[in-house]
Amino acid sequence: xxxxxxHVDPELPDVDExxxxxxxxxxxxxxxxxxxxxxxxxHGTRHSKVVALVEIHTGPAFDVACDMLTRTSxxxxxxxDVSVFPRARDPRTGGRQLEQxxxxxxxxxxxxxxxxxxxxxxxxxxxRVFAIDVERARxxxxxxxxxxxxMLDPNAFIEDPVFAAPLPIDALVRAAETDDAVAxxxxxxxxxxxxxxxxxxxxxxxxxxRAEGIAExxxxxRAESLITMLDAxxxxxxxxxxxxxxxxxxxxxxxxxxxxxxxxxxxxxxxxEADPTPVA
Length: 280
Prior knowledge:
By secondary structure, the chain is of the alpha+beta class.
């Protein structure tokens, strides 16, 4: 899907034309100046998780913003908590393009107030607006046709052209799921750092496997040489002793047994824990 132009209606102001001073704590709703207070703990902590989740799932052609003002009409200038917009500049204005998705975190703010903002954003041309209800641990999407919020299945995913990986709804409302969702998204997006770590781990595993294979081959060869020597010298070798030799993987032990096998009278001398003390 191609990015939305910021000038859906040529009579509307550009999306980045301000009614209020940027970096201030104000929005404008239908000409009314509204103070936006700092977040409380539930809102602030959930807000940070939503930003991280949306950022990590967004594709390379889009950018993510937090509390960025959008001019929705001649009389309104509002700032969604989180928004996703095209990286490419507006070909007409040279400014940013209109966001395609917006997210509102609802804590002390009512769903009704969030709905008022959602309606303005959708009327401007924002394709989809979501609300994260902190108190009730649920996610909703604004329905322009119904003029209200529709609750989303917590076990579903938000799939949209702006996302490189589907965004799990459960992770938006449950802090415990955030890390897992971020990790899965990075794997799906084939993050360069993770891909490099996986490649290095694979290379180390292959090298370790080769080294272990070589050592295994050497040990097996020495064990078979020992059995051949004992058989040639007529040293009785029962099934248990034969198995003990073939199961031994320490090259030094096998070398010591091979040395003893050249002069031993029975298999017990080969397996002796220590060489007999020389007689003075």
